[in-house]
Amino acid sequence: MAHGNPEGAERSLLADALCFLTRVVSRQPKLTLVLALILSATAVGYSVCRMEFKTKRSDLIDPKAEFHKRWMEFAQSFGDASDVVVVVEGESAASVKQTLDDIGGRLAADKQFFSNVLYKVDPGPLQGKGLHYLSPTQLQSGLDRLAEFGPILEGRWDLMRLDMMFARFNSQMQSRGAEPTAREIKPLLDHANVLSNSMSRWLADPNDFQNPWPMVVPVDPRMAQAGSGTIYFLNESGTMGFLKAQPTDTQTNFNGESKSLDRLREVVKEVAAERRDTKISLTGIPVLENDEMHRSQSDMTIASILSYVGVLLVFIVGFRGWRYPVMAMIVMAFGMAWAFGFTTLAVGHLNILSVAFAAILIGLGDFSVCFISRYLELRHEGRPLRPALIETAGSVGTGIVTAATTTALSFFCATFTDFLGVAELGIIAGGGILLCMMAVFITLPAIIAIADKSVEPGKLPEAFQAKFLRMSTHRYPWVVLGVAGLIIVGAGLQAITFDGGKIASRVRYDHNLLNLQADGLESVEVQKRIFRDANDSLLYAVAVADTPQEARALRERFEKLPTVHHVEELASRLPAHTPDDTKLLVQAFRARIARLPQQVPQIAAPNPASVGRTMEQLYAKLRKRPDKESQRTAKAIDIFLDQFERLTMPKQMQFLAEYQYRMSAALLMQFQALGAAANPKPVTLDDLPAELTSRFVSKDGKWLVQVYPKEEIWDVEPLKKFIDDVRSVDPNVTGVPLQNYEASIQIKTSYEKAALYAFAVVWVVLLIDFLTTENRWLVLAPPAAIIGFLAMTLVARRVSVDPVILVATYIGLSAALGAILDFRNMRDAFMAMLPSVLGGCLMFGILGLLGAQLNAANMIVLPLVLGIGVENGVHVVHDYRRQTRDYQPSASMINANLITSLTTMVGFGSMLIAAHRGLFSLGLVLTVGVACSLFVSMVLLPSMLTIASRRGTAAAETASSRSDSDNRRQQSSQRDQGQRSNRRAA
User: Fold this and answer.
1) Rounded Cα distance, 834 and 937, in Å
2) How many secondary structure helices (H) and strands (E) does the chain include?
3) What is d(CA 835, CA 880) in angstroms, rounded to the nearest whole number?
4) Distance CA 312, CA 329 (A)
5) For position 356, what pLDDT does the model report?
6) Which of these, 2, 238, 323, 757, is most buried using a 10 Å CB contact count?
């Protein structure tokens, strides 16, 4: 008896349609191939003319996402071009500066490829406007201090004589009464203390001169920097310098070429050859992405060659020759050509994720294998050419359609996700798989009809038989089931661990994009050295302010956050007060110091005896005072006099004359610095370097605030803390680290949702495939109505709806209802899911043992493994349902599943040679996943079906035996009743 319901009765419409198509194609094979070639050429030509390529990471993100809207608003004002960073390392600051000048000059001159070249800041006009940075209160205080120097500013430089200065200290002490308080004479005491200490230090060391004059006004840090001349961007030790530039041509094609970055590497190579005393390296987000593209393209080229050779060898071994592998590759070429046309028509472009769809189709779209395997099996059984093709389409065609549909739907479900790159990949890959399936039924029978027209069945190759595997699952199903179960359970448990008494997964999602790069990549290593040696980061958050005042306020709030290292913005480089508040005061400074001499005027040399006497008088007065300030100043005078008295008279005179000149020159320089900073014209943005204003102030008047992290934020834990902190200050903050984080979260959740939706859709397709006609809608429709009503009710009440719960509830309800109405077919549908479910558990266990993690590159494994597992399971269960005795896996099914899985493993496994860790992880995870699904479908599932078939046969035989016994008893009873009736009649 057949296992389950007869397939011909249940799927006659699909089977008849496939048989009809194969009959037509095999009757007119040449016409079919000509039409297929015309369609392929049209699709390829259309793609060449209309296909576009989007290479930016931002092209992968849904433009409707809130975080991406904030980034686009920022990019609209300030541009989305990230800086390339040139890092110069040397033993001395001088050599580093010279190299920076050399590179910076060349890049600044090359405006075709670079803009905003920033490696140093020249003070420019700011040097003459320093007083504008002071508050009106500070300026007024400075004017009051200048008033004290009024006679000197009027030309009385003779008042600078040391003996006269100490005499004034004495007279000022007397003018404040007999017992002035410490507070009343504090300015006098401070000046006398500083002057005495300065004289003592210079007497001890002629190279150690300390300015004895208090500052007339406090010196602003920017004013001091402006006065120091050109400022280079160096680390504290001066051994590492930085140059930032924005490439104007960042468009990178799929060969990893970028004109600006290629030109930058040329310049660096030229300068490095001339300046061998420094080391020059490149990093920055554009360089990291470009290096990633270069390395991944190089690795993919090698992997593709190995993949092609490996897949060809698998085909040749599986089909014992080259004829049928060539046929399969031709059919694949047709499907790929149609897929390119579909991609151009449906989406119009490829991105850095969907460009991998060709590799996906090569790995998943080889449906020809199943068709060819069954065809060869029928030919060896004696079927003629065309009847064998038609019967193949009718017997395995439904399984191929179901497998292709479930795999395609697994990808189509990605369109419901938020991440645009994943959604587009789902559309392209799903449509491509369906087209590859269609190519099998349209072109493969035509190719075989032509190629095998004159070939005798005995000359056809026999497919790989896998006799040991088939024999083991057939003869010892319980043993095989037990061993396979132990392996799955034992390995699956390795996916979990106990952390603090709680169950945790060993396989986690790694958000760190640097971990996708190749080991030892220069741009990655340089980034690590920058953070270690300069305590700086390439990643920073950005906030946008409408006014300079708002930018300063944001800076103050950001700097208070525990995860923030420093904040950069341009508003703080402008005066905090308006020109109306400071202009008149600055003009007053300029007027008061307008008559300064160019050099120190001639001042009479002081008399050592007079200086000593006046200092002794001051010392005697201060020594009697009890306050600490007086005692401190008295001690400083005493120390100097002790040292001074040891000098000879000529040396005393020389010292006092030279010190008096130094002291006067210091005061004159202070006045001259004030005069140089007293330009009454207000400070404007035009006074700042253009390289800064173009970065921090947009054309529409927005002000940029850059917030740098205290820790490296490539890892998710410090990144999340940093993001939470900066968003507590400004919820609209954006920047590359926030884009990376949100995109990483979005791609992770998108693949998870895609896998969840795919699981539900595949479940529905399997129920449609396996359930009887009368039970199909009874099982599918009521749970859908219940879930739909529940979802609408929750939405109406504004209750958040978790799709995981809804999908799980629907699957549970439909499974329970199906088990009640049609248990046997429901069991078959569940069996078809086992390679995905148990194979996934086994895969995560092995990944846990290997210490592998999921990431943005390999998360595609979720829908892929689901699709591959279901495809294998469907073929096995359909093979089981075709047989009428104790189940034994057919050679054609084993051969088809082995070859398709092995080609997929070889295709993706070739990435294991990649140095790019993202590609390596993708190859590893997919290879392990496909191998696990293959193990379950070829070992555990056949043994389970064998046991089920034997139980069904035994039950049928028991039922038949009981029926025969009942019939015999009924016949005997009827004979006895007849005999009794005859006796009564007699």
Assistant:
1) 8
2) 35, 14
3) 15
4) 9
5) 66
6) 757
Query: What are the Cα distances from residue 424, in Å, to 66, 412, 415?
Result: 19, 9, 7
Reported as a single tens digit per residue, the pLDDT across 271-284 is: 999 988 899 998 88
pLDDT tens digits, 357-373 = 776 777 666 788 888 88
Percent of the chain with pLDDT over 70: 90
Residue entry with tokens 């009847």: 387
Return phi, psi of residue 569, to 5°.
-160, 165
> Is the Cβ–Cβ distance between 404 and 367 less than 8 Å?
yes
Alpha-carbon gap, residue 975 to 966, rounded angstroms? 14
Q: Answer left, alpha or beta for residue 321, where phi above 0 means left and psi between -120 and 50 means alpha.
A: left
Please state the φ and ψ torsions of residue 183, each to the nearest 5 degrees. -65, -35
Q: Provide the mean pLDDT of the chain.
A: 82
Q: Give me 787's structure tokens.
A: 């879930």
Burial class (CB in 10 A: 0-12, 13-18, 19+), 967: exposed
Q: Is 30 exposed, middle or buried (0-12, 13-18, 19+ CB in 10 A)?
A: exposed
541-545 and 496-499 as β-strands: parallel, antiparallel, unpaired? unpaired
What's the average model confidence in pLDDT over 72-97?
85
Tokens 């205290």 correspond to what residue? 710
Residue written as token pair 């202009």: 583
Q: Among 906, 778, 885, which Cα is nearest to 325's?
A: 906
How large a percentage of the chain has pLDDT more than 90?
Answer: 17
The pair of three-digit structure tokens given for residue 727, joined into one six-digit string? 């968003």
More confident residue, 299 or 445: 445
- Amino acid occupying residue 709: P
Question: What gap in Å lies between CA 259 and CA 248, rounded to an integer?
Answer: 9
Confidence of residue 9 (pLDDT cuts 50, 70, 90): very low
Q: Please report the pLDDT score of residue 218 as a whole number.
A: 65
DSSP letter at 156?
Answer: -
Beta strands in 258-351 (DSSP E): 278-283, 349-350
DSSP labels for 558-624?
A: HHTSTTEEEEEESGGGS-SS-HHHHHHHHHHHHHHTTT--SSPPP-PPPPHHHHHHHHHHHHHHHHT
- Share in percent of the chain as helix, strand, coil (round to 5): 70, 5, 25
3-state secondary structure of 547: coil
CA distance 110 to 498: 58
Q: Which of 114-118, 500-504, 594-598 has the lowest mean pLDDT?
A: 500-504
**Cβ atoms of 876 and 535 closer than 8 Å:** no
Token pair of 363, please? 């790995």
Give the confidence band of 716 by pLDDT, cuts at 50, 70, 90: confident
CA–CA gap between residue 889 and residue 467 (Å, rounded): 10
User: In whole angstroms, what is the distance from residue 364 CA to residue 425 CA?
Assistant: 14
The CA distance from 872 to 76, in Å, is 50
| pLDDT tens per residue across span 781-833 | 888 888 888 888 888 888 777 777 888 888 889 889 888 888 888 888 889 98
128 neighbors 267 (Cβ within 8 angstroms): no
Encoding tokens for residue 561? 């956050």
Q: Looking at residue 838, what is its pLDDT?
A: 92
Distance CA 769, CA 786 (A): 22
Amino acid residing at 291? D
Asked if 229 and 124 touch (Cβ cutoff 8 Å), the reply is no
The pLDDT value recorded for residue 40 is: 95
d(CA 7, CA 690): 77
CA 969 from chain centre, in angstroms, equals 78
**372: which residues sit within 8 A by CB, 6+ positions away?**
319, 324, 327, 328, 444, 448, 463
Q: What are the beta bridge partners of residue 498?
A: 503
The type of residue at 388 is A
Nearest to 244 by CA among 873, 731, 689: 689
Q: Which amino acid is at 875?
A: H
Q: Where does the pLDDT of residue 964 fall: very low under 50, low under 70, confident under 90, or very high at 90 and above?
A: low
Full-model pTM: 0.72
Residue type, 658: E
